[in-house]
Design brief:
By secondary structure, the protein is α+β, with helices and mostly antiparallel strands. The chain has two helices and eleven strands, in the order αβββββαββββββ. A nine-stranded mixed beta sheet has the order 10-9-4-5-6-8-2-1-11. A hairpin with a 6-residue loop joins strand 9 and strand 10. The radius of gyration is 32 Å and the shape is elongated.
């Protein structure tokens, strides 16, 4: 009598095991793909938000930029320090002015790191203008502000930045860069007028 045994056929149990294996592998693969997609999306959002923060400055100049001359105005001695008022832009966040990196440059002199010093007055800023390597900057006055060093919305800080009086002469363009801890560099670029008075409005 001939046997009908056939070892090549799948049983229902074997088919179920193979199906379950495929489902499990597909689920794991889908989880990995979705996880990678969510991670990439999150990183993209972080990059966008960081880019917006870095590209936008939260400072603006309120009013004019003044150049205060040294005590003895001559052809070899010009502007001693710049004086201007800053405030937050609309929707800007508070920033710690003490953490700003301030640099100065003109046609002949450059200081990449003007040092901060608290409570400098007119005489101290004029004294600091004698040497380009010894330039300093300070917060001279605070308007509608509390006692901390945070420039918050609605507050105004009057900034004084010493510049080298031997190079900040007539018709010389001056540049002061103010780099906050977060945000873009805020540039103050002005030119000394054709004559120097004790106090000058720079344009």
């Amino acid at each position: 009598m001939r046997s009908l045994k056939d070892d090549n056929a799948f049983t229902g149990l074997e088919a179920a095991i193979v199906l379950i294996a495929f489902v499990v592998v597909a689920a794991v693969f889908s989880y990995v793909v979705l996880g990678a997609g969510f991670f990439t999306t999150q990183k993209s959002q972080e990059v966008v938000h960081t880019g917006v923060d870095q590209a936008s400055s939260s400072m603006e100049i309120i009013g004019n930029v003044y150049g205060v001359a040294s005590d003895t105005v001559s052809t070899t001695s010009g502007i001693a320090y710049l004086k201007f008022t800053i405030g937050n832009t609309a929707g800007g966040t508070a920033l710690d002015v003490k953490k700003m990196v301030v640099s100065y440059a003109d046609e002949q002199a450059r200081n990449p790191d003007v040092k901060y010093e608290a409570k400098m007055n007119d005489a101290a800023l004029k004294a600091a203008s004698a040497d380009v390597n010894g330039l300093k900057w300070t917060v001279m006055d605070k308007i509608n502000a509390d006692d901390d060093d945070l420039l918050e919305p609605g507050e105004q800080f009057t900034i004084g930045v010493a510049v080298p009086k031997t190079t900040a002469l007539v018709n010389v363009p001056l540049t002061v860069n103010m780099q906050p801890a977060v945000g873009a560099v805020f540039q103050v670029k002005r030119t000394v007028g054709p004559s120097i008075d004790p106090i000058n409005i720079l344009y």
